[in-house]
Amino acid sequence: MNFSLTEEEKSIQDWARKLSQEIVAPLAVRHSQQKLSTDYLKTISSQGLMTLLVPEAMGGMGLSAVSFALVMKEISKVCGSTGVSLAVSNMIADILVREGSPYQQEKFLQPLIRGETLTASFCLTENSSGSDASALKSRAVKKGKGYELSGEKIYVTNGAFSQFFVVMARTSDEPGSKGVSAFLISRDSKGVTMGKEEDKMGLTGSSTIRMSFENVFVPEENRIGAEGDGFKIAMRALDGGRISVSSQALGIAEASLEFGVRYAKEREAFGKPIADFQAIQWKIADSATLLAAAELLVLQAAYLKDHQKPLTLAASQAKVFATEAAIRVCDEMIQVLGGYGYIREYPVERFYRDVRVTALYEGTSEIQRKVIARELLK
Length: 378
Ligand code: CAA
Prior knowledge:
The chain has 378 residues and is an alpha+beta fold. The chain contains ten helices and ten strands.
């Protein structure tokens, strides 16, 4: 067992830190108030950040899952909204690498690699099917050499920026997960309507929209995998996505902890820095310990992904532990700052709002626990 990063992983981590400071940090405050701009996304994409896991032979960055987790953490430490935008685009790119046909890789993945397409999105959740994902109602009916797809999707991350979408829809009357297929749909397809942008608690820079599809013609060659494979494609993608979200949570919480530590050394009360009080020291000690433990779980899940080992259990364990730890750390740092922690002048307030969703999207904490129990009891 080796607990140190390889030289290559260290240099990728350094690269991500430098990039975060040069490109992400100058706009982080702006992106806590308004959406990521097209120009900014172009810059991000030109650095290869949207296709980090795509093999170099295909034109991507060819990072391992471990290196990807390190990059996700560094970027999210500076801007959580950029973090989630990368997380979802990379998840779609990863689906296309692992499950896409050569045609789909050429038509959808290559433009994402070249930066002609800025981001991509994942359309699984519907109004009445969130945690119970296989209860989705969108339907794709066979029509000529393709399908006509109709339905409504919500919580589409990157929706406003994306040129294409991976959409899960039913292709048969088989119950639950069995009748679900996955399709690639371009934004400009007839019948695609971009809906309302959600007004969220945090991650203001990221786009989260509703979408509707009305008799959208989807050629057969845009179906990923076979008919009925869609649910498993989505679940395999979420196994990887859950590692990204865990890394995002770690990054945000680490930023909060670093700010809290600096503040505790500077702020005085009762004639000495508050860092001298045991009450503050324990908050800092517990927070750092939680994040260190969480990081081990995240890197373990990423390691399993790199070695093509089963990762469902480890990814869900990493997600539930890392996101709940991160939320607790961000909450504790507000306590360290006292009243200043609650006002917008200080970033810990934003970190708390940004981190909260990590225990909700890509499967709530309750769903992660269900997955962990299912894996242990099966
Ligand atoms: N990998 C491969 N196959 C998997 C799998 C995985 N991780 N998980 C399940 N499967 C397979 C099962 O083996 C089973 O296969 P068989 O039918 O051949 O036996 C099939 O899929 C169905 O599995 P379950 O019976 O366990 O399915 P279920 O209906 O009980 O649901 C669930 C399981 C874990 C609750 C699942 O619905 C789930 O993960 N829900 C949460 C959904 C979610 O994370 N949504 C987030 C959407 S994305 C988002 O947040 C927005 C964003 O863009 C950031």
